[in-house]
UniProtKB/TrEMBL annotation:
Database matches in Gene3D superfamilies: 2.60.40.2030
Entry-linked InterPro entries: CaCA, CalX-like_sf, Calx_beta
Pfam families for this protein: Calx-beta (PF03160)
Protein name, per record: Calx-beta domain-containing protein
Keywords: Calcium, Ion transport, Repeat, Signal, Transport
Domain Calx-beta: 6-106
PANTHER family the UniProt entry points to: NA_CA-EXCHANGE PROTEIN, ISOFORM G, SODIUM/CALCIUM EXCHANGER
Length: 253
């Protein structure tokens, strides 16, 4: 029997990051595992509260959770991560020895006086999307709002996987144009079985805004999406359950 905790994404506004440790099957005895947070780009006190302890998964159950408090500040920050290390399991083996926690900043609106002009703000229309696996095209929209003076361009990129093709290019707005602009994603249908529990996560990046008179939070913006694998796992294969957590900031408008 193996125990593991999957990576999660959580907004700092959520207040806590919930880490779930999951077994590949139930057992007749309690399973325990020690956990402790480890700094990364996110550091304790400034971004989260250092946490450690022992988690018990009661006999006959598949999972249990613990939480790590997050610090919700007013600083505009990039995506930051810290890890939760697992150790010293009893009545089970560790499938993964660490889980990565990504903290998504929730300061979507610039502080007063930040704007140098009136070119507007640029943001994804939605922050999380889910698609079913299949050979078809999906679209993600990017908004320009608040103001629309002057021309503006914004680059986007998405690396390829076996579930979708790479996509990169430049979005263009002319003076006075505030219409949403599309990013097209070509999904792929294949016979591969995802090794991470039927959810494949992708990330679209916005960067390199051309005008100094507009605003994109942090200078770079991300949209996370999932593709749901439609292949079933092989009978008899032991696989830790995947728990993807998507909690995202609000854009403040």
């Amino acid at each position: 029997v193996y125990a593991s905790a999957e990576d999660i994404l959580v907004s700092e506004r959520a207040g806590v990051a919930a880490i779930t440790v999951t077994l590949t099957q139930t057992v007749a005895s309690d399973v325990t595992v020690e956990y402790a947070t480890v700094d990364g780009e996110a550091v304790s006190t400034a971004d989260y509260v250092s946490t450690s302890g022992v988690l018990t998964i009661p006999a006959g159950t598949l999972s249990n959770s613990f939480t790590v408090p997050l610090v919700d500040d007013s600083t505009i920050e990039d995506l930051e991560t810290f890890s939760v290390a697992l150790s010293n399991p009893s009545n089970a083996y560790l499938d993964r020895i660490a889980s990565q926690v990504e903290i998504l900043d929730d300061e979507a609106v610039a502080p007063s006086g930040y704007f140098k002009g009136n070119a507007g703000e640029f943001q994804f229309s939605e922050f999380t999307l889910s698609f079913e696996e299949g050979d078809r095209q999906e679209v993600i929209w990017v908004d320009r709002f608040k103001d629309s003076a002057g021309n503006a361009t914004l680059e986007y990129s998405l690396p390829a996987t076996e579930y979708y093709e790479a996509s990169e290019g430049t979005l263009t707005w002319l003076d006075g144009d505030s219409d949403p602009k599309p990013i097209y994603i070509q999904l792929l249908d294949n016979d591969a079985i995802s090794p991470i529990g039927f959810n494949i996560r992708g990330r679209v990046t916005l960067s390199n805004l051309s005008t100094q008179h507009g605003y994109i939070p942090n200078g770079t913006r991300y949209l996370y999406f999932t593709v749901h694998d439609d292949e079933e796992s092989s009978v008899g294969t032991l696989m830790a359950s995947q728990y993807n957590v998507f909690a995202v900031e609000e854009d403040g408008t």
